Amino acid sequence: MKADPKRKTSSIIGFFKKALQAKKIKTIDSSRGGPHLRFEYNGNVQDLLNSITPCKLIESKVSISGSYETKEIVLTKKISSIPDTDKFDSIKLVVANSSKGILKTKQLTPEQFNIVGKKITKATYVQEVTKKVKEKKLPSNVEAVLLSMLESSKTNSNKITEEVKTLTDTDVNIIAKDFGEIVSANWFMNNYTKTVDRIEFPTISNLKLVDFFAYKSNNAKIAVSAKSGSGAPPSIDSVAEVLQNIKYNNQKNQKSKQAIIQISENSVVEGIIQASKTLETKGYLWIKKNMMGGRDFTAVDCEKVMQSFNNFQSAQNYLKPYYDFISRSSSNMIAERIFATGDMG
Question: Which pLDDT score, from 0 to 100, does residue 240 have?
Answer without folding.
Answer: 80
